[in-house]
Structures are given as structure tokens and as C-alpha cells.
Amino acid sequence: MKRKLLSLIITCLLLVSMIGPTASAADESVSAIFGGGPFYQGGQSVMNDLKASGFNTVIIWSVHVNANGDLVLNDSLVCSNGSYVGNSAWVTQWASLKTAPTTVKRIEVSVGAWGCADFENIKSLIASQGTGSNSILYKNFAALKQATGADAIDFDDESCYDVASAVSFGQMCVGLGYKVTLCPYTNSSFWISVKNQLGSSVDRVYLQCYAGGAGNSPSTWMGYMGMKVIPGLWCINNSSGGDSASSVNTKLTNWKSSSAGGFMWLYDDMMKLASPNKTADYANAINSAFSGGQTSTNIALNKTATANSYVTGETPSKAVDGSVTNNSKWCSTASGDKWLTVDLGTAYNINRWVVKHAGAGGETTSWNTKNFKLQASSNGSTWTDVDTVTNNTANITDRSVSSFSARYVRLYITTPTQTTDSAARIYELELYGQ
Ligand SMILES: [Ca+2]
Fold first, then answer.
1. Which single residue of 65, 180, 223, 249 has CA 20 to 30 Å from 317?
2. pLDDT tens digits for 316-366?
3. How many CA atoms lie less than 13 Å away from 167 in the CB half-sphere?
4. 195/212 Cα distance (integer angstroms)
């Protein structure tokens, strides 16, 4: 009797563990990306790249504070006299960032930068007007929040280092509903004072570990700040050389015990890179460092893909190229079932799969794949069903499964769209594991 009860309990536990997709630990760590001009001038395609990337935080860089309190986004006046006066298209774009389907959960605006008098101007404005609701600082940062949807203001003071005005400014931001994040690269005593006085209003510390901050130790700064930090690295670039996605993964893995995530500098450089250093590759490099031994990147990326048919130019390889922009999809109009096979070259243990459908590439969501399954094979000819999805409507399918070993993986589509349209459109098939 006892034995039967025990086996029943074990069976129940096994069943529970097999039900449904499970949340990945990566959701809890920070993966942030800074961007300049492309974050407002690059149009919706840049927003779509970010939304599908895996980054959970987008930091708009950089808002400057003029001596009269005007707010300038790099070279463009955006807030004046308490109103947003920038391009209305940018507001629409930023609003789309956190609109499903997306991996972006948080937007920040970075204030200050090297060689700018922003925090000096903030200090003078606070001395003359304070931070009350009639002050120009208060009114313009209220307008900025409404326009950008920003959840936090990131302090990138690299010259003023005045504790009292930084704290007053931080308290004003909190009153407006912002969180405050700090972005130090040096002068730890200043940042320690600001952190101590603002307390839990500071919920993130982005530690620059590139350029002037290249020698920074996350564990040392964790001690200074009294909280885990988020180390940042510069992607491959023409100025400093920079880190590949693979190198980012290695460094963050080494810093994991003192880090709450990682950030990348700078999208303006990253957007020029090719696989395996595209936006999604860097996001994967960060997320996988914090998700418990997952591979550093999408295992299927740039592997050999074949299919039972495809439309001219929309080849199977487009489903494993890491891109969801510029019509980068495999499309099949074959009659009947359609399949896409990826040869991984060697066997991997896989525990998660992701499919990016028509909507993820900017096409109508009525073309999102409705019924499909994932199959595995060791020889490329005998297939076993691993996971089945029915009645999908989402742009992105993200499923966790019990780990399985396979060299060949097949996406097998039985109903390609929500309508009578009979074409399958797959922008990306991604595989993760160990
Ligand atoms: Ca693609």
C-alpha cells in the first residue's frame, strides 16, 4: 500500500514537471542595450529588431539638459516649456517597444554623457528653481516620461559629481514615477553617496566595463553599491575592437556571482554587424550567462537547413539566419504538410524551441502558423514527435520541453495559417539547450 502510494506520488510529480512551458530563469536577469540615433531615427524596423531580440531593457541614449532646462535628445529638441516637441513618430515607435509580442519590458532614458554639462546644468537649475512642480526640470521630465514611456532615468554623470543636486534630481524623478539607475565608470565615492541617499529608489547599477571603465571589477562595485551590479561591454566596433557575443557570454559567466544581468553598448555599432554578432546573438549571450548552463547562443543559428519546398529567394536558410527583418523567412507553398529540417552537425541536448511566425516579421498575424510540431531524429530519416502546438495565434512560439538529444530537428507544419492561405512563413526556428 505504501509502495503504491509512493509510486502514485512520483507519477504525479513527473506529470506536473512535464506540463507546459516553464518560465526560464533568463526572464529574471537584466539584459539591456543602449542606443543613440537608431533608437529614434531608425524607424519601426529598429523597434522590431529590438522587440524580437531577447533584450528586456532598452536604454535611450542620451538626453541632455540645456542651461534653460530644455531637453535635447542628442541633436534634437524634445521637451521645452513642459511639452514634448519632438517628432511624433518617435512616440509611436517607443510605445510599440513594450507592446506584445516583445521581449522588451522596460525603457530607460540615459541623462548625461562624457563631455556634456548636463549635470552641471541640473545643479544650476535646482539652485535657481528647485524641483517643485513649477520648476522647468519637473515639467520637462514629466513630458519626457509621457513621450517615451520610460520606466527609469539612468544617471550618466561623468563630470559634475555633485551629490546634493544629483540626489535632489533623483528624488524629483521618483516623484514623477521613474526609477533611478546609476551608470558609473569611476569616482566610487560619489556614486556610493548618491546610492546611500536615494536608497531603494535606485534599483539598478549599470557598471561600465569598457573604455574608461575597462578595468572595473563587478565584485568590487557590488561591495561599493550594496547590491549586484549589471556589467556592460562594448560590442564589436571600429573604435576599441570590442567584444564578440561569445566573449560577452564568457565574461558575464565569470562575473555572474556579483551581477544581476548585463548590458551592451552600443546598438549604433551592433546594427552594422553580421551573424553571429547580431542583436539577438548579444541578447542570447547575456541571457544564457544567467540561465543556468544554457548554450551561449541559439544552437540552430546558421546551421544547415533544408525543406520539402520553398519559394524563390525565401530559402530554408532564412529560417536560421538570426534575422526577422527584411523578409528574412522561409516560405513554402507546397500542397499538404510542409517541413523544415535543421542539421545541427552533431547531437545536442535541447530543452527549448522558439518559432518566429509571420507576425514576428511584420506581416499579418493571420498568417501565423496554426498547427505544427517539433520532431527529432538521429539519422535525418526516422522522426519522433517532441512537442505539438495546436491553434497557435501568437507571433512567437516559445516552448520549454524535457531535454532530448538530437542531431536533426524538424519543424513539421500541418496548418500553416489562421485562414485558407496555404503558405507557411517561418522567420526563425531557434533551438536552445546544452
Ligand atoms: Ca530569418
1. 249
2. 999 999 999 999 999 999 999 999 999 988 888 888 999 999 999 999 999
3. 14
4. 21
Fold match between 26-289 and 304-433?
no
Instruction: Give the Å distance between the CA of 322 and the centre of ligand 1.
Output: 5
Distance 95 CA to ligand 1 centre (A): 25
Cell readout for 125 is 537649475
d(CA 93, CA 47): 7
| Contact between 216 and 189 (Cβ < 8 Å) | no
Q: How remote is the CA of residue 296 from the centroid of ligand 1, in Å?
A: 19
Ligand 1 center–CA 330 separation, angstroms: 7
Q: What's the CA-to-centroid distance between 242 and ligand 1, angstroms?
A: 25
- Segments in 256-353 forming alpha helices (H): 267-270, 279-289
User: Residue 72: beta bridge partners?
Assistant: 64, 77
- Dist. CA 238 → ligand 1 center (Å): 26
Instruction: Kindly list the domain boundaries of the chain, sorted by start residue.
Output: 26-289, 304-433
User: What is the CA 305 to chain-centroid distance, rounded?
Assistant: 26
399 Cα distance to chain centroid: 18
Ligand 1 centroid to residue 277 C-alpha, Å: 14
Q: How far apart are CA 47 and CA 89, in angstroms?
A: 12
CATH topology of domain 304-433: Jelly Rolls (2.60.120)
* Residues 126/77, Cβ–Cβ less than 8 Å: no
By C-alpha distance, which of 266, 206, 218 is closest to 242? 266
Tell me the per-residue pLDDT of 262-279, one tens digit each, with 9 for 90 and over: 999 999 999 999 988 999
Q: From the CA of 392, how far away is ligand 1's center (Å)?
A: 20
373 CA → ligand 1 middle, Å: 19
Tell me, in angstroms, the distance from the centre of ligand 1 to residue 426's CA: 8
Structure-derived torsion over alpha carbons of residues 411, 414, 417, 423, reported in degrees to the nearest 10: 80
Q: How far is the CA of 190 from the centre of ligand 1 (A)?
A: 46
Determine whether 328 is exposed, middle or buried from the number of CB atoms within 10 Å of its CB (0-12, 13-18, 19+).
middle
Cell of 77: 529638441
Q: In angstroms, what is the span from residue 279 Cα to ligand 1's centroid? A: 13
Lowest mean pLDDT among 67-71, 125-129, 280-284: 280-284
For the domain spanning 26-289, the CATH number is 3.20.20.80
User: How many angstroms is it from 323 CA to the middle of ligand 1?
Assistant: 4
Distance 200 CA to ligand 1 centre (A): 41
Ligand 1 center to 379 CA (angstroms):
25
